[in-house]
Amino acid sequence: MTSASRPTGDHHPTGAPHPAEARPAGDRPGADRPRSDRPGADRPGTRRPPAGPTGFADVGKHFGTVQALTGVTLDFPPGRVTALMGENGAGKSTLLKILTGDHRPSTGHVLVDGERVELRSPTQARALGIRIVPQEPEIVPHVSVAENVHVGALPTAAGRRLDRAELRRRTTADLERFGFSGLLDPELLGSDLTAAQRQLVEIMRALTGEAKLIAFDEPTSSLSEHETEALFALIDRLRAQGIAVVYVSHRMREIFRIADRIAVLRDGALVGVQDASRTTEGDLVRQMVGRDLSTLFERRAVATDRVVLDVRDVTTDHVRGVNLTVRAGEVVGLAGLVGAGRSELALALAGDLPVHSGSITLDGRPLPPGSPGRAIRAGLGLAPEERKDQALFLHRSIRENTSIAVLERLRRLRFVRRSAERDLARQYADRLRVRTPSVEQEVRTLSGGNQQKVVLARWLARRPKVLILDEPTRGIDVGAKAEIYRIIADLAEQGVALVVVSSELPELLGLADRIVVMQGGRVTGELSRAEATETAVLRLAMADDITTTTAPGAAS
Ligand SMILES: Nc1ncnc2c1ncn2[C@@H]1O[C@H](COP(=O)(O)OP(=O)(O)OP(=O)(O)O)[C@@H](O)[C@H]1O
Q1: H/E segment holding residue 388
Q2: Given ligand 1 and candidates 84, 88, 94, which is best to mutate, with the most ligand atoms within 8 Å of its CB?
Q3: From atom 27 of ligand 1, which residue's Cα is the shortest distance away?
Q4: How far is the CA of 394 from the centre of ligand 1 (A)?
Q5: Residue 258 binned pLDDT confidence (cut-offs 50, 70, 90)
Q6: How far is the CA of 104 from the centre of ligand 1 (A)?
Q7: Across the chain, which distance is largest between two alpha carbons, in Å?
Q8: Which of 415 and 421 is assigned the larger pLDDT?
Q9: I need a surface site. Which of 264, 308, 311, 416 has the fewest CB within 10 A?
Q10: Bridge partner residues of 248 (DSSP)
Q11: In whole angstroms, what separates CA 498 from the centre of its chain?
């Protein structure tokens, strides 16, 4: 791509000043007007009003017998952020894929600036200014960040060789404009990127060239607070330039922070579109799920004195001397910022990563580290963070994917195995509200959130002595979240020792009897349920940063 083909001046995301308005939910004067109509947004060069709406007219979509969408009519006004909400499998991703030319609608059509268009491919949608930041970033592993961002439009020097200096310059400038400087090195290889960095590359890719509509599909699921704020600042700038933003997320707090309007889908149909300042979390939940979830975190404390998991001085590549005890019936929350070492500790305890020193005792017996099979046999289960990559057999059914962890138990009942397997899978599919016609459905055809529920079902079904759940509700809708909280409470009542790693603080504060906070691979503190507040947790999660600020050099 030449620099001339990139957005410049007012069209560029960072060409416009950052809107200064703070936006607490429910207190946004003029929130019902398009942003571009508001004072300060009307700068020379801001887009002209389009001739007509961009969005969907009566769109339906079926996959074989599955009716994913029915009669959806919805437009995305310029300069406004429209959030799309709905339970797992409600049809959000399918809707986005129709907008970006990945799927063709079975009925109805897509409108761009009032004109009916037949989008045959993502390239065609892109040429019309429609962009998507997909749920699963697609990164080329063997090339740099810069090449990944500018893939398909790389600058060339004499002899048609790649002009690396120009590419680096361009990417560094992009990083600065998008507010991502310091979060990503243009020279890093695709294969070395963290989940968060992969997401940032996808966002940068979507923002190159002239965009009129940008859709984000659960963009923050792997971003830290800091990266999420950089993304929100960017979205504020996109809005101020008159770009239509579509934002898919299950996170209520984010929706109320960033959205102007909220569209709710249920079972493939549009339930309604409301102004974000005139609705509440409770209203949205009722619309999505059809019931009240006000008792989300209700659970009794049932922890006993019997220590089931005792971790002493465990050191791994990035984890330093961690001590942790979990009692039967206790839920211990592991808090920390992304990169604090929580997932590495979880993987090490489950035998998936080497332990360099220290000891692990499970139910009074030493658990030699380094063997996942041994950990499972000893009664320690881990539902890892990267569930889909690490755990699913995509071409197998929900039944097979659920029962694989309990086959030994079912095998004993040789003749009834298949039906026992099916009953088990059905029981969890129902409890976790997996949207599927049958448990014989191949997992690859499920929506992202429903795939996550299947992996979780497997571990919940196993009922180990110690269960470690790493980000158990990531990508999962609010109805199923409530069910997962209930299952965690039930497991605790049955005497299971639980460790929950979560980046959603309200979730940890609601679930945990005790919160252990990590930072930079170490435990920086522990808070009882009574002591734990968001501020107290964050203070410990940033302990080093605070030490460094107050006493330079002291933290080295
Ligand atoms: N390629 C496919 N083949 C068969 N069924 C599909 C396919 N893609 C989607 N579906 C079905 O369409 C429905 C809508 O799925 P979609 O991915 O749009 O949901 P979603 O609202 O994005 O969910 P999530 O919050 O879990 O990401 C689901 O029932 C899903 O199983």
Answers
A1: helix 387-391
A2: 94
A3: 448
A4: 14
A5: very high
A6: 14
A7: 75
A8: 421
A9: 416
A10: 84, 217
A11: 22
Q: CA nearest 331: which of 212, 179, 488, 175?
A: 488
Which residue's CA lies nearest to atom 17 of ligand 1? 447
395 vs 454: CA distance, rounded Å: 13
Report CA Rg, the chain: 24
Query: Would you give the distance in Å from CA 493 to the centre of its chain?
Result: 29
pLDDT band at 18 (very low <50, low <70, confident <90, very high): very low
Least Cα distance to 299 among 268, 323, 333 occurs for: 333
Q: How far is the CA of 62 from the centre of ligand 1 (A)?
A: 10
| 130 neighbors 112 (Cβ within 8 angstroms) | yes
Residue type at position 530? A
* Most informative mutation of 65, 445, 474 for ligand 1 (most atoms within 8 A of CB): 445
322, 328, 334, 339 alpha-carbon torsion, rounded to 10°: 60
Q: Which atom of ligand 1 is nearest to the CA of 446?
A: 31
Q: Which residue has the tokens 């220590």?
A: 307
Q: Give the E-state strand segments of 363-465 in sequence order.
A: 365-366, 380-383
The pick from 387, 388, 433, 447 for probing ligand 1's pocket by mutation, whose C-beta has the most ligand atoms within 8 angstroms, reads 447
Mean pLDDT of the chain: 82
Tokens at 274, concatenated: 């409301």
Q: What is the pLDDT of residue 414?
A: 56
Name beta bridge partners: 515: 333, 527
| 88, 289 Cβ separation under 8 angstroms | no
Alpha helices (runs of H) in 47-151, residue ranges in sequence order: 92-99, 122-127, 145-149
Residue nearest to atom 24 of ligand 1 (CA): 88
- The confidence band for 151, taking pLDDT boundaries of 50, 70 and 90, is confident
Chain length of the chain: 556
The number of the ligand 1 atom at minimal distance from the alpha carbon of 96 is 18
Beta bridge partners of 307: 327
State the number of CA atoms in the 13 A half-sphere of 267 facing the CB: 5
Q: How far is CA 51 from CA 48, 111, 187, in A?
A: 9, 11, 42
Pick from 485, 446, 480, 450: which is nearest to 469 by CA? 485
What residues does ligand 1 touch, defined as CB less than 6 Å away? Answer: 63, 66, 68, 86, 88-94, 435, 445-450, 477
Beginning with the edge strand found earlier in the chain, give each strand of the sheet holding 66-75 in spatial order. 66-75, 55-63, 107-112, 115-117
Give me 351's structure tokens. Answer: 């035998």
Pull the structure tokens for residue 242.
């008159």
Amino acid at 235: I
Instruction: Name residues whose C-beta falls within 8 Å of residue 277's C-beta, 6 or more positions apart in sequence.
Output: 25, 26, 27, 28, 31, 32
Q: Which two tokens stand for residue 247?
A: 């934002």
For ligand 1, atom 6: residue with the closest CA:
445
User: Please, are residues 70 and 34 in contact by the beta-carbon 8 Å criterion?
Assistant: no
- The rounded distance, in Å, linking the Cα atoms of 511 and 489 is 8
Q: What are the C-alpha distances in Å from 390 to residues 88, 352, 426? A: 20, 11, 23
Q: How confident is the model at residue 87 (pLDDT cuts 50, 70, 90)?
A: confident
Nearest alpha-carbon partner for 189 in 177, 180, 179, 197: 197
